[in-house]
What does this fold into?
Amino acid sequence: MALRFYNTLSQQMEEFFPARDNTVRMYSCGPTVYDFAHIGNFRTFTFVDILRKWLRASGFQLNHVMNVTDVDDKIIRNAVAQHKELNEYTAVYTQAFLEDCATLRLERPESLVPATEHIDGMAAAIEKLAAGNHTYSSDGSVYFRIASFPGYGKLSHNDFSGNIAGARVDVDEYEKADARDFALWKAPKEGEPFWPTSMGPGRPGWHIECSVMAIKYLGETLDIHVGGVDLIFPHHENEIAQSESLTGKPFSRFWMHAEFLMVEGQKMSKSLGNYFTLRDLLGKGYAPETIRYLLASAPYRKQLNFTFDGLKSAATAIDRLRNFKLRLETDRFPEGTNGELASRTAAACQAFRAGMDEDLNTAEALAAVFEFVRDANSAMDSCGFRAGDVPAAVELLTLFDSVFDVLRPTAGAGGLSDAAVEALIAERTAAKKAKNFAGADQIREQLLEQGIILEDTKSGIRWKRK
Ligand code: AMP
Ligand code: ZN
It folds into this structure.
């Protein structure tokens, strides 16, 4: 079956394939590093990770660029308030973001690019836009003239023809959505950081960074551009206006947008104060993979309501799959294969792929896995599951985990670190040597309780996590 994505630009499902040489050129808008990201932000970043993994499972290679917005109004405000240099301030939250991504098992994009390292490129782009008559200046700031770009509104499907004349709004905080002209370059202000450039001192507006870095690393036309739905307008609309005015080419073939993580009917956001950071939830004892599962389990184009019950169900779902995996690994099954089960396994694999192929419908993909696990478990209970059925079942779980990545427990998250496991094993070996078999068994039990399975082999003790 073909891979199809909903394209915000065409408002239709379209078959996806990269334009050139089997490599997907993809750009995602990254974090603004003024504070810790919340799990609403991570819903979007988890969607991007699922997209990456499914593109790879579909046989494509990836060239994915993500920006780090390390200069904007909020960052400057906070850095100034704390008497810190801009980069000293942003380094803390960039680092925290990368740690949180690693905790949630989000793959690193091929390039992660900070805006402040591309200021000269932005100045050059703005000068080129000026030469093309797309800008005007006022008090040392430069604005993009939306009337100079007839396609404005094609992504958000807004008709701006009535209200674009002459208005100028100096915002780059995208919550304050304003339809009209936007700042490309901001004049230096007293006490604020600025950069000397070929077009004079100042700092870039938010939108220009993405156009410049995407084109620099990926070329004039991307295969996919992604972000949260709140970025469609004005940010992505502005990216299109800038990029297409610069190159005369379509900026991105596909635009994909993740819906919000909600809390009691409202978008989870810093400004509403209704948010949890990843660290908040880890502090409450939730495992990273539970949070990952919850964020990934709803199709990305549907809003997802965040609740603690939802987190508990996610933990239960993971347990169910881990227990099934353990059964596959440790139970003894009669020889042979169960023909009916074999065809069900094949059907489950196919349904999983079909769900993912249809615009990453993770809910359908998961339903296929759980239906299979239920059938296989009951076949095991009634001795209908055979040794020959194990490889296909393992294959399905492997396919599932290549995307969802939740079966491996996080060391140290409500469990033991590798070092602690090794130490207990050494203790147990010492107990055995001292013929303290009861003590050795007790340690084995203690490890088992923590999800650690020991195997006595000829070459020594091997261990693994459930
Ligand atoms: P920011 O760091 O504010 O630039 O946001 C980073 C990403 O998180 C953007 O792609 C936003 O669209 C996305 N985002 C912000 N709030 C939410 C939310 N409640 N649910 C899903 N995505 C969000
Ligand atoms: Zn962007």
